Amino acid sequence: MNGIFWEKVKIKKRIDFSDKIIGFWLTTEKIAKNSKIGQFVHIKIGDNYGFFLRRPFSIADREGDKIFFIFRVVGQGTFWLSKLKKDDELDILGPLGKPIEIPEEKDILILGGGLGIAPLYFLTKIFSNNKKELYVILGAKKKEELILKERFEKLNLKKLIFYTEDGSYGEKGKVSDGLTNILKEKEFKIVYSAGPIEMLRKIKFLLKEEIKIYGFLEERMGCGVGLCAACAIPKKDGTYLHLCEEGPCLMLNEILL
Amino acid sequence: MNLAQRIKDITFPNPILLASGTYGFGQKFKEIINLTGGVITKTITFNPIVGNPPPRIYEFEGGIINSIGLENPGAIYFKNKILPTLKNLDTNLIVSVGGTSLEEIVNVIKIVEEEIISAYELNLSCPNIKEGGISLGQDPKLVENICQEVKKITKKSIIAKIPTFFCNPLVIAQSAERGGADFITITNTIPGLVIDIERQKPFLGGISGGISGSFLKYYALYLIAKIRNIVKIPIIGCGGVRSYQDVLEYLFCGAVLVEIGSLNLSNPFMVIKIIEDIKKWGKEKEIKSIKEIIRKIKIEL
């Protein structure tokens, strides 16, 4: 149905990045095989309807029939998720959202902060398989929150720079500092980013208007499948985009951040 | 159990309708829509409406508060760009029509009128519109006039989705019937407000929203039990359906059709399971037709 599947899936593997950041590998029947970069899954929380709405999580990686997603425990929904272990079952809808097309540009700048690193891993992996010259800057508050560090290090990248705010790994500072530095040596026509909204705003501020800036955004979501119009993102022209259908990775040049 | 009914020249293969605002305009998940008794589109207004600023949705235990703000592309776009894509729908297409005046509602129907539409549901009760404050449906005389004027310009059935708050829903239901409405839907969402204590302001971008979810079923059932005694036109139940048992409650209570709304936001596939479960239940109870259970229970209120 529209390439969207409803599945009961099992947690194949749980990875604890820190006490608040957890990742799950899920074994799916059809969702993984149909997943493309930039897409997400919509996960039912709780055994009943105490939590009415699902929670969206970007697909951080895919291998065969498995998909990977990472979350930070921020509210009751993610707290419920954090109690699950290997072999527990999840009720998921997916793959959802608009897949990202491989861009024509050869040189691509990728900027990820905090949990934003997650969706960018899948993207970077696929881009690197498509012979792109990738410049990747990743940042987090501290070393243990620099998720997927080792996985990024195994990819064929032109440049991979890490930042931590406390200096516990890589350069001390923020992703935006890394952006300022790299712009001194090289120009880019296209940028992909994901991270806290303040980081995306800073990136948009630092980059020239003619540069295509894509960013993964978040908004309160209803159905996740384009039926209810809840996840509105304001555009510059006064209208709205729906994150679940046209995102979650949107061209930031067109929207109000 | 045979779930089909023919009511007012419309054949409903089963009593389940997809409520307005929760299944888009009917272009997506057509395979699912085709298994239901019909889909009710998001409300169409004369001019396009961009909708409310985010956040537009808030979740609480057992339900949601939405503040979409009637976002829709307007009647002309709907007629020219969306309706043609719905020609292959294999069930009833019901168009939800809204507006801030009688004239607007009439004009929308004049524009969208098309053979493939089975009926119009008049959204007389959406509490999301800022303009005017109260909705059209809270004025009994206006409800009667709207139904009358709409009946003059279309031969299709009209469903009055009436407000059930800040007015006497019993009086409004009678007004709709007097005006010639073929069905009434009870109930729409009820207005609500969420306060964000961190930011110290209303949580929803549109300030207020419409509350829906489980609790609404009990209010709707109560109203249906009351209203079924004072109007003759068929009643469509709407509010808080999560399972086949909820649908059966509505049918026993006196609704001939039941809309499923918020549940679609939680899982757009669930409606199929509910229809299958109703059939299974009917088989177990050896009930031949759904008509046998509608309004089966005596309720003295």
Describe the structure using short key phrases.
heterodimer, A: about 260 residues, alpha/beta, Elongation Factor Tu (Ef-tu), domain 3, Rossmann fold, 7-stranded antiparallel beta sheet, 7-stranded mixed beta sheet, 7 helices, 16 strands, about 20% helix, B: about 300 residues, TIM Barrel, 8-stranded parallel beta barrel, 4-stranded antiparallel beta sheet, about 30% helix, about 20% strand
Fold and architecture overview:
- The complex is a heterodimer of chains A (257) and B (301).
- Chain A is α/β, with parallel strands linked by helices and 257 residues long.
- Chain A has two domains: 5-96, Translation factors (Elongation Factor Tu (Ef-tu), domain 3), CATH 2.40.30.10; 107-216, Rossmann fold, CATH 3.40.50.80.
- Chain A has seven helices and 16 strands.
- A seven-stranded antiparallel sheet of chain A has the order 4-3-7-1-2-6-5. Chain A has a seven-stranded mixed sheet with strand order 11-10-9-8-12-13-16, sandwiched between helices. Chain A has a two-stranded antiparallel ribbon with strand order 14-15.
- In chain A, helix 5 (175-185) packs parallel to helix 6 (197-206).
- The longest helix of chain A has 13 residues, at 117-129.
- The radius of gyration of chain A is 18 Å and the shape is globular.
- Chain A starts with a strand and ends in a 6-residue tail after the last strand.
- The model of chain A has no long low-confidence stretch (mean pLDDT 95).
- In chain B, the strands form four sheets. Chain B has an eight-stranded parallel beta barrel with strand order 3-4-7-8-9-10-15-16, surrounded by five helices. In chain B, strands 5-6-14-11 form a four-stranded antiparallel sheet. In chain B, strands 1-2 form a two-stranded antiparallel sheet.
- Chain B has a single domain (5-292), classed as Aldolase class I (TIM Barrel, Alpha-Beta Barrel).
- Residues 127-131 of chain B have low confidence and may be disordered.
- Chain B is of the alpha/beta class and 301 residues long.
- The longest helix of chain B has 15 residues, at 270-284.
- At the A-B interface, strand 14 of A face strand 5, strand 6 and helix 8 of B.
